[in-house]
Design goal:
Length: 91
């Protein structure tokens, strides 16, 4: 995937999940960005199964996303429900 496509996806995710005009760091935005990166790395690892360094990075990102989701679940449950539904993270 070309680098400019990743930048466009990142910009689109920030615009979609932000809570106000200048929001770039709310938990929702961070979770959306991590989800984009996790999906990208998952596709990469399907074609390169022995890339253990990228696999470790993927696990770190999944852990960070889980921490942010846990924060939202305990402190702002409606926002948590909204973000998991919009991203399709839980069944």
């Amino acid at each position: 995937m070309p680098p400019f496509a990743l930048k466009e996806k990142r910009t689109k995710a920030v615009e979609t999940y932000r809570t106000h005009e200048k929001d770039t760091g709310s938990p929702e935005v961070q979770i959306a960005l991590l989800t984009e990166r996790v999906n990208h790395l998952t596709a990469h690892l399907k074609t390169h199964p022995k890339d253990f360094t990228s696999r470790r990075g993927l696990l770190v990102m999944v852990g960070r996303r889980a921490s942010l989701l846990k924060y939202l679940a305990t402190n702002a449950h409606p926002r948590y429900q909204s973000i998991i539904q919009r991203l399709g993270l839980r069944k």
